[in-house]
């Protein structure tokens, strides 16, 4: 079992920056990747970014060049650095952990609200 706790959301003006954190606890060694997804009202949850145990990173198309994922799964913490935020980035951001064993379900945090507005 893995528990994920996010922090760092809030209200920011367009063009501003924000940093999210996700701390994992529990069976960390079972985790292959950790990352961030987001969901805006009336929209499907979408990938923002993820990082694997061998430090490979991947980003959703809408955030490439603006967001950076960092951290280390072995050290149980990842971060999402969000720059040049746009109103379209407004969403609930969820931390995700994907196990090595594909048949096992993903783990999710409770989510943190990010609102980009002037």
Description:
The chain has 118 residues and is mostly beta strands. It is built from no helices and eleven strands. Strands 2, 4, 5, 6, 9, 10 and 11 form a seven-stranded mixed sheet that branches. A four-stranded antiparallel sheet has the order 1-3-8-7, with no helix packed on it.
Give the H and E element order.
EEEEEEEEEEE
| Share of residues in helices | under 10%
Distance between the termini: 40 Å
- Helical stretch tally: 0
Tally of DSSP β-strands = 11
Q: Whole-number average pLDDT?
A: 96
Any idea what the shape is?
globular
**Structural class of the helices, strands and pairings?**
mainly beta
Provide a quick synopsis of the model.
This protein has no helices and eleven strands.
Key traits:
118 residues; mainly beta; seven-stranded mixed sheet; 0% helix
Task: Give the helix/strand layout.
Elements: E1 2-7, E2 10-12, E3 18-26, E4 31-39, E5 46-52, E6 57-59, E7 67-72, E8 77-82, E9 91-99, E10 107-108, E11 112-116
Parallel strand pairs: 2-11
Antiparallel strand pairs: 1-3, 3-8, 4-5, 4-9, 5-6, 7-8, 9-10, 9-11
């Amino acid at each position: 079992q893995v528990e994920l706790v996010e922090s760092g959301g809030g209200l920011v003006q367009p063009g501003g920056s924000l940093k999210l954190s996700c701390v994992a606890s529990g069976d960390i060694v079972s985790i292959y990747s950790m990352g961030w997804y987001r969901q805006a009202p009336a929209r499907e949850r979408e990938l923002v970014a993820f990082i694997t145990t061998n430090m490979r990173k991947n980003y959703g198309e809408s955030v490439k060049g603006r967001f950076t994922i960092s951290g280390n799964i072995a050290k149980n913490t990842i971060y999402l650095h969000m720059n040049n935020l746009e109103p379209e980035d407004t969403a609930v951001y969820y931390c995700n952990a994907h196990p090595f064993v594909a048949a096992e379900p993903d783990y999710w945090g409770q989510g943190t609200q990010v609102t980009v507005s002037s």
